Amino acid sequence: METIKPIKLGSYKEDTSEPLTSAEMGKLWATYMGNSMSKCILSYYLQHVEDKDIKTLLENALKLSLKFMNTIEGIFEKENFPIPKGFGEEDVNLGAPRLFQDRFYVHYLKYVAKAGMSIYNVAIPLMIRRDVKEFFRNCMDATMDLMAQINEILMNKGYIIKPPIIPVPDKVEFVHQDFLNGFLGHVRSLHALEIAHLYDNIENNTASKALIMSFAQVVKDEKIRKLFEWGRDLTSTSIEHYMQKLHDENLPTPSFLDDLVTTSTFSPFSDKIMLFHKMDMFSMKIRAFGNSTAVNGRHDIGLMYSKSLLKISQFVEAAAKIFIEKGWMEQPPHAVDRNKLAAK
Fold first, then answer.
1. Superkingdom of this entry's organism (predicted)?
2. Is there a contact between 322 and 224 (Cβ–Cβ < 8 Å)?
3. 20 to 30 Å CA-CA from 146: which of 56, 259, 336, 343?
4. pLDDT of 169-190, one tens digit each?
5. 79/82 Cα distance (integer angstroms)
């Protein structure tokens, strides 16, 4: 494939001595926090994995998280930016009994790799400073390579089915007045983009449900447990709705992963890291719903996503309130509050 032609403007020189922009600060901070969490989670997974291919996959993922954190620390130190506390040894018990079967680890990695790619994809166009821009491009490239390994293992071991197969069109066609119908009149069959996002949302949510189910099983704080149980139930309901849309078209769907969670009630993780994880990943669902809605054309599917969005937003807000009440939420980089400035 030919690369694009270079453009030599010469009027602006990217300089790594330039101060970080708000976009660069924000995305670096969020990436550090996410990988700080992943370091703990993956370190625990590696204590129990038996399948050698899945173990290599987990090792690769952990290596990336540590590399990303190290690079960000270098940038922050150069800018005298305080290194976020994130998560550490106090947030994981490596000696805890097995909570998941090996197969779950592969689905989990795909779940979080998608979230990482979403962050990097948004970050890249906003980055100006050369070192930060190159960092996020490297993050995206490395995560794409990891995703290729994940999908290869999922398919070779028979852990997932491919997205549904539909017929190749016979000719170019144009839509009619009933294209947007979803409740009344003639309701057309799903188009390829609607199917793709329904499949993607099911795939994400089956991993999310198994994870939050396991967290509800081991969490110590009763208030957080009830929140997790609520999140588990609303995730289960969403999955069933998405599946029904595909089943109505006689199309296959990914299956639940609940059976990959063991019966252990001994927590390998702190309540803090589990609450952060689900608050963070439920926030990612909001972006997924936006992407799904953007390519949707049927009123019934649009309404379904709107209801899911409302419930997910309520969960994230409830989780954030608990996180703040516990004194666990670190302050992201922020603008100056000039209303609080006063002459001395």
1. Bacteria
2. yes
3. 259
4. 999 989 888 888 888 888 889 9
5. 9
- C-alpha–C-alpha distance, residues 216 and 235, integer Å: 13
- Give just the sign of the alpha carbon dihedral 267, 273, 275, 279: negative
Q: Is the dihedral of CA 209, 111, 42, 320 positive or negative?
A: negative
Residue 131: alpha-carbon gap to chain centroid? 25
Length of the chain: 344
Three-state secondary-structure class, residue 100: strand
The answer to whether 157 and 170 are in contact (CB under 8 A) is no
The answer for residues whose C-beta is within 8 angstroms of residue 116's C-beta and 6 or more apart is 34, 139, 143
DSSP state for residue 180 in the 8-state scheme? G
| Cα–Cα distance measured from residue 294 to residue 297, given in angstroms and rounded to the nearest whole number | 8
Which residues are CB-neighbours of 175 under 8 A, at least 6 positions away? Answer: 297
pLDDT(22) > 60: yes
Fold of domain 22-156: Ferritin (1.20.1260)
Q: Which two tokens stand for residue 88?
A: 């550490």
Structural domain spans, the chain? 22-156, 177-325
- Distance, in Å, from the CA atom of 328 to the CA atom of 227, rounded to the nearest integer, reads 17
- Rounded CA-CA distance 55/106 in Å is 10
Structurally, what CATH architecture does the domain formed by 177-325 represent?
Up-down Bundle (1.20)
Q: What is the pTM of this model?
A: 0.92
- Per-residue pLDDT tens over the stretch 298-337: 999 999 999 999 999 999 999 999 999 999 999 988 888 7
